[in-house]
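Task card 7
Instruction: Convert sequence to structure tokens.
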Amino acid sequence: MKSVRSGYVASCLLAVGCSAEPSLTIYNQNFAVVRDVAPLELKAGVNEVRFAETTAHLEPESVMLLDPSGKLELQVIEQNYRNDPVSQELLLSLFEGKTIGFVVKEPMKPDRTVQGKIIRSGYAPHSQQAMQRYGSRYSQSQMMYAYGGGSANQPIVEAEGVIRFGLPGQPVFPSLGDDAILKPMLTWKLQAAKDAKLEAQLTYMTGGMSWSADYNAVSEENGDTLDLIGWVTMDNQSGKTFENAKVKLMAGDVSKLNPGSRFDLDRAQMAYDSCAVGVRSGPGVVERRFDEYHLYSLERPCTLRDRETKQVEFIRATGVSCKKVYVYDGLNVDWQRWRGYGMENLRRNEEFGSASDTKVAVLREFQNTKANGLGMPLPKGQVRFYVKDGRQLEFTGENVIDHTPKDERVRIFTGNAFDLVGERRRTQFKVDSSGKWTDESFEIKVRNHKKEAVEIRVVEHLYRWLTWDITNFSAPFNKSDAQEIVFPVALKPDEEKTVTYTVHYSW
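Output:
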């Protein structure tokens, strides 16, 4: 049987200029999965292969190199990832302790070369990701070395009989041979059972790439419908340009460990249904369900240049029914102040919950349904609202929505109403510690200074204890949850109404 040593082939292949288009799946959590092609021409035995078309934020442990046909048994004996392309700082570090030439340029004088010994290069030896792997203390020491105060990151050179911080001139380096690299690079030792020529499938995860969704909603000044336009913004800070790439965007909360952490217990939670047909997707974007998430695929290949931000429209819907909701939530509790108080103390404290607010919140609410002109999964993103003022658009508020499946309600806070006012005050407080009960009464006033009628939802939080009963009330209310009730109050123009209630807590 031929040994590995006797079968060793001293061939070094540089896989560049791939014939096939790369494909990307970008996640909205600052990472991506890259699928590329590495053309290989292997001899039976051990081969050394270089691939110089990777990103600068590649996760080496995620790399997979496979024969897509499954015909060749391809064994990776060793893999090395280098992310230190040749730079002046790197070369200085490689020649620490050695003497090289420096070209000195002076005004009105011919250039001259002096010899200098590099005592310290000032080069930062590790990437941020590498530093995070080994804990905060190591990271801090390396950051201090690279970016510390004073002259910690300056080179030190001995030239012309003196030691100086900084370089005496432009350094001139000897040749490094084949070990120098110009781009981030993967190097493999591959064991091949036979001679083979193939286009291997290379898959890896990388940081430095992200995408986000943004929405622009436009409505008439007094209308109850809006037009919704959605954009996806792709940001490439990976250190690599992807030419004519097939791009997919993954929406959902995928569990991803942070660099240096192996104990991230977050789990993906959003399980969306398949796409409905009630909304017209933007040009060139197709959505479909994938596992517990949703994929948005760009129909045409696109080029994502390094350090480039690219936007593509992915949704356009018109005539979406959307109503304004006014909410007065008058309770104003500084929870930081009451931090450390036990519930036994809070339920007896008369001052707790006595402060109030006067603002009435404005929310925009619509149903993400096919019947309402939508009905497709909406990725998490920022929504900006505009109102038409004649032919011009005026900005009226913005906020963020979470990943929203179809057939769910979207409710967005956009600001506070100018012409609506609330007023809340406590009118009675009684506590019987021996009887284990507390009674509390409130008076809430809401005023409408608009020219049209409105409904204000008065929200009251029953915050003192879990067991309660409304013993007296002046208007009907709805129970929202175990500790919240809502009074819907209809107001005519320039009308004021008062709501009163008493709550009895027992324990």
